[in-house]
Design brief:
By secondary structure, the chain is mainly α. The chain has one domain. The chain contains 15 helices and 3 strands. It has helices at about 1-15, 20-50, 55-75, 80-85, 85-100, 125-140, 150-170, 175-190, 195-215, 215-225, 235-250, 275-305, 310-335, 355-370, 375-380, and strands at about 105-110, 110-115, 120-125. The longest helix is centred in the C-terminal third of the chain and has 34 residues, at about 275-305. It is globular and about 55 Å long.
Length: about 375
């Protein structure tokens, strides 16, 4: 009898869950729908002025979202463990993309080379986010029993530094910072000792501050964060108008499509400051509800992290959850002036083809991992 129970336990541990996490899927679809609606509202004025077509950004985002959902479906069907076999190909391909971005093939916008033209503008740092997550997860899984030793963390940190250096020179300071933070936190969660974490945090912190101070516009953003209303017609116009937009929304908002701050008072209303338009048109209550939706999605990802027993899969879940959570916090923090301006989009909502394609693709990877999670039924059998 006992041997039969043990065999049943072993069998249940091996069997993948037959259903993906549909709650996670529905939550992501809801965020994409909100994003499409708000991009139409936030971008209509700018699109009419620049392209004589108020639906220009809307139609582009719908196309990108459709591509993203196709990639998400494919990723949800592909066994996530295959990334372990091709991790170096993924990383090298990522490095090649970053190098090509800096070459004459790269597209320069406002003095920054962050895109490749592949029929549409492809922002290579967005792919780097996934590539670094998979690469870091691979090394953590490879050294899962020795992550407390320095030799086990040097190599993944070196891969991160190389990647971040190529992104920095584009320049894309915000993307570099978030990739570095996600990678280091993953390594810490994977077993890096507190001593090594503290030792590495100091030089990385000093390095980031030094790089920030080297560029005058980054220092201007920091000063603007400290006093967002000192120069509202100059240096502080972005953040001050973002605050005005949220304040004018009140409790219930001015109504969908009725934002006044999107009339060239807010920079990139369909992208970096789309949360300000949401707050203005739908008010404080809907803004809090949107934040709750993100918190709920992060909670679902955290549950998947707990229920995933394979180290490689667990660390991919950790990385994607950190990427989503940190980027959400940074975007909303900038719009509300609780963080310095970083120029980073709101996941699933802000306009951006590469961003929504990559976030939906990473969601597909999570959905595939959710097939192999330990379900409640299996936990009961194990007990």
């Amino acid at each position: 009898m006992q041997s039969a129970i043990k065999n049943d336990i072993k069998k249940t541990k091996r069997e993948p869950a037959k259903r993906i996490d549909y709650i996670m899927l529905i939550t992501v679809i809801l965020l994409v729908i909100i994003g499409v609606l708000m991009i139409f509202s936030a971008s209509s004025v700018q699109a009419s002025y620049e392209y004589n077509d108020s639906t220009k950004f809307l139609r582009s985002q719908l196309q990108f979202a459709a591509i993203g959902f196709v990639f998400m479906y494919i990723a949800s069907k592909v066994n996530y463990k295959i990334y372990k076999d091709y991790v170096f190909i993924i990383y090298i391909f990522n490095i090649i993309l970053l190098i090509l971005t800096l070459s004459p093939l790269g597209v320069s916008v406002a003095g920054a080379k962050r895109w490749l033209n592949v029929g549409f503008r492809f922002q290579t740092s967005e792919f780097s986010k996934f590539a670094c997550i998979v690469t870091t997860a691979y090394f953590i899984n490879l050294n899962k029993y020795t992550m407390h030793k320095l030799k086990s963390v040097i190599i993944p940190i070196g891969f991160l530094i190389l990647n971040c250096a190529l992104i920095y020179v584009q320049p894309s300071f915000s993307a570099m910072s978030i990739i570095l933070m996600v990678g280091l936190i993953m390594i810490f969660v994977g077993g890096m000792s507190v001593k090594f974490m503290l030792i590495s945090a100091v030089p990385f912190g000093v390095g980031i501050i030094t790089l920030m101070m080297k560029q005058q516009y980054r220092m201007a953003r920091l000063i603007s964060f400290l006093d967002p209303f000192k120069d509202t017609s100059g240096r502080d116009w972005q953040i001050s108008n973002s605050i005005y937009a949220m304040a004018s929304g009140g409790l219930f908002g001015v109504g969908f499509g009725k934002s006044t701050q999107k009339y060239f008072y807010i920079s990139q209303p369909q992208n970096d400051f789309i949360f300000a338009v949401i707050a203005e048109e739908f008010g404080f209550l809907m803004s809090v509800l949107l934040i709750f939706i993100y918190v709920f999605l992060i909670f679902r990802i955290f549950r998947l992290f707990v229920d995933t027993k394979d180290t490689f899969g667990k660390m991919i879940v950790c990385g994607v959850g950190l990427q989503l959570g940190l980027q959400t916090i940074m975007n909303i923090g900038v719009a509300t002036s609780t963080l310095p301006n970083t120029g980073i989009g709101l996941p699933f909502i802000s306009y951006g083809g590469t961003s929504i394609i990559m976030f939906l693709s990473m969601t597909g990877v999570l959905l595939n991992i959710s097939r192999y999670r330990v379900s409640k039924r299996k936990k009961e059998v194990v007990k």
